[in-house]
Each structure stands twice: as structure tokens, then as C-alpha cells.
Amino acid sequence: QVQLVESGGGLVQPGGSLRLSCAASGSRFSINAMGWYRQAPGKQRELVATITTGGTTKYTDSVRGRFTISGDNAKNTVYLQMNSLKPEDTAVYYCNADGADLGPTGWRGGDYWGQGTQVTVSS
């Protein structure tokens, strides 16, 4: 199994910044890509940004130019630097990892999720 632990959420005023972190851990695993999704009250979970282990990034249009995703492959950690935050960025942010882990019957592909961290943008 792969565990994802997020940190860095909180309350910030409009125009402010936050940095989210997510670290993956487990006994035997490999990661292909990591990313961030968010879910606002009453809305579906949506992709925010992803990054592959090769460094290829993807952003949803509403955050491009304000958010930056980065990763540290050696630490199996992904970061999301969020600048110029807006009230509409308020949501629970979930870390996601695409990879595989070594189970009792061999390697198995997996889509892993963190527990979520609340980001609230409000004055």
C-alpha cells in the first residue's frame, strides 16, 4: 500500500499564498505521477495540477499562472505553490499518486489518495 500525507492547508485572505505538500510512503512502491485535485462544497472533484516523475506538468485553466506544481522524486513528495488566491479556490485539496506497489501476489497498479486538506480563501 501507498500512503499519502498532505500538509499546508489553512485560511488565507484573497490575494494571499499557501504551499501544500504531499509525501508518499510505503514498503515497496513506485510513482509515475503525482497531482492535486480539489472539491468545493456541492461540486465534483476536479483536477488542479499534475506532474510526472519526468517533470511534465499540467494545470487546469483556472489556476494556470497562479499555481505551480513541483516534485522531489528522491523524497516522493509533491508541492503545490498557490499564489494570488481567490475565494473560488476554497475547497478540500486532495493529493493523488499514480503508481504501483508490491503486494502479496506481486506488483499491482494503483491510484492513491490522501485524506485531504482544507484551503479557505476569505477576508
Radius of gyration, taken over Cα atoms and rounded to an integer in Å: 15 Å
Structural class: mainly beta
CA-CA gap between termini: 40 Å
* Order of helix and strand elements from N to C terminus: EEEEEEEEEEE
For the residues shown, what is the average pLDDT?
Answer: 95
Give the DSSP E fraction (strand runs of 2 or more residues): over 45%
Report the biggest beta sheet as strand number plus sense, adding barrel if it closes: 7 strands, mixed
Count of β-strands: 11
**Shape summary:** elongated
- Provide a count of the helices: 0
Helix content range: under 10%
Unreliably modeled segments? none
Would you write up a description of this structure?
The protein has strands at 2-7, 10-12, 18-26, 29-39, 46-52, 57-59, 67-72, 77-82, 91-103, 106-113, 117-121. With 123 residues, it is an all-beta fold. The strands form two sheets. Strands 2, 4, 5, 6, 9, 10 and 11 form a seven-stranded mixed beta sheet that branches. The chain has a four-stranded antiparallel beta sheet with strand order 1-3-8-7, with no helix packed on it. The N and C termini lie far apart (40 Å). The mean pLDDT is 95.
